[in-house]
Amino acid sequence: MAWFLYLLECSDGSVYTGIATDVQARFDKHVSGEGARYTRSRKPVQVLVSFELADRSSASRAEYWVKRLPPAEKRALGAGLRTLESVLPAPVPDPEPDPEPEPVAADEPPST
């Protein structure tokens, strides 16, 4: 199931970041006052942008990093001046496994 990271512009000019499986339904919840506490007092005006991610884990990770951006950077992300990939840390490649040690023959003394 796809999850989305979304950014909302609020009536006080702030930018709210959240995740959902249905952005429009979640936006409607925020507008009705049943969404996050943050948006109850700062009514959402519009969805700035949404990004589709593979699963909830990916969406949560992306939300973690986007929430740490200053408002200007969130707006740049919403305007398409930055990509979501530019905000997220670079993936760490899996380390290569250690090579298997060479077997020692039973009649050879161990090397020192």
TrEMBL record:
SUPFAM superfamilies: GIY-YIG endonuclease. Residues 103-112 have a biased composition (Low complexity). InterPro entries: GIY-YIG_endonuc, GIY-YIG_endonuc_sf, UPF0213_domain. PROSITE patterns: GIY_YIG (PS50164). Gene3D superfamilies: GIY-YIG endonuclease (3.40.1440.10). Residues 1-76 form the GIY-YIG domain. Coiled coil: none annotated. Residues 87-112 are annotated as: Disordered. It holds the Pfam family GIY-YIG. Belongs to the UPF0213 family. This is GIY-YIG domain-containing protein. It comes from Paraburkholderia sediminicola.
